[in-house]
Amino acid sequence: MADAKLVKELRNITQAGFLDCQKALDSTNGNMEEAIKILKEKGIAKAEKKSDAIATEGVTDTLVDGNKALIIEVNSQTDFVAQNEIFLNLVKEMKKVILEKEITDLKSVENLVLSNGQTIKDASIEATSKIGEKISFRRANIIKKDPTSTFGVYTHHNKKYSSIVVIDKDINENIAKDIAMHVGAMNPKFLNKENVDQVWLQNEKDLLIKKTIEEGKPKEFAEKIVEGRVGKLLSEYCLLDQPFVKEPTLTVSKYVANNNNAEVVSMFRYELGDGIVKEEVDFAAEVAAQMGK
Question: Could you report the per-residue pLDDT of 13-72, keeping only the tens digit for each?
Fold first, then answer.
């Protein structure tokens, strides 16, 4: 039987269970490297069973390095695992290498090599095997700015959403962060009226016209009435026209302009699980199945 000290050492290295470590060492006559290999192979087999699971929790996060910044989303299956140290350390390593290599497409990201020599794909599989939940990189965006511009960067305390803005002048970073916080909290759909998607706008106009007619207004006047309502609609959805959350008497545009006559030129926002179809679980049926009913 394997020495208890070796078992403890193997557990520290692999985070595997006591009996699994003992069996691996017994089968390799105490050879630590071979035992690690066996446990990794078992872990990968377990992780592969999780590969089809839908991961909608996890974190969004940001990282800034000079004149470039990263916004990222990495998923887990539950919110509990999103607070796990193994998971958070993996996200931290992912951020560094993705920003350094400036690569964001899924397949290329999975092949990036972390500081420990593992690819992101293999590290995610190993984390899945240790934690027992699917861990997966979902998306990332790299933003660049001029040296005279300023990044505003914000990640909410629960990491459910993150945002980055680029401001065209050199302004106080705390002010820039406040603008990024506004983007995170208010979730503007467009930067300004010039950036509004015209298909979206036409659909909204059609809905407003329909609603106006239903309110009893004459059909021939409905379009003119809607024009005024569209202006209000755009001020709700366009960042620069929104009242700034910390000073509602000013729009975001005017607030930023009061600081070195600056202007927000771009914005980016990730919300955790946005667009992912969540799996509906029938808890009663799941319990019954586990009990063999």
Answer: 665 667 778 888 888 888 888 887 887 776 655 555 555 666 679 999 999 999 999 999
The pTM of this model reads: 0.77
Instruction: Please check whether residue 106 is in contact with residue 88, taking contact to mean a CB–CB distance below 8 angstroms.
Output: no
Distance, CA of 271 to CA of 137 (rounded, Å): 14
Instruction: Write out the two tokens for 269.
Output: 């926002």
State the CB neighbour count (10 A cutoff) for residue 27: 13
Start-end of H helices in the chain: 4-14, 18-27, 32-49, 85-101, 106-110, 120-131, 173-186, 198-214, 219-237, 252-257, 283-290
Task: State the DSSP code for 119.
Answer: B
| Domains defined for the chain, CATH in brackets | 4-49 (1.10.8.10), 53-144 (3.30.479.20)
pLDDT tens string 109-133: 999 999 999 999 999 988 888 888 8
Using the structure block, give the residue that is written with the tokens 């003119």: 224
Structure tokens at 45: 């087999």
d(CA 97, CA 80): 25
- Nearest CA to 81 out of 36, 122, 18, 132 is that of 132
Rounded Cα–Cα distance for residues 19 and 7 (Å): 9
Distance CA 101, CA 118 (A): 15
Contact 127, 50 (CB under 8 A): no
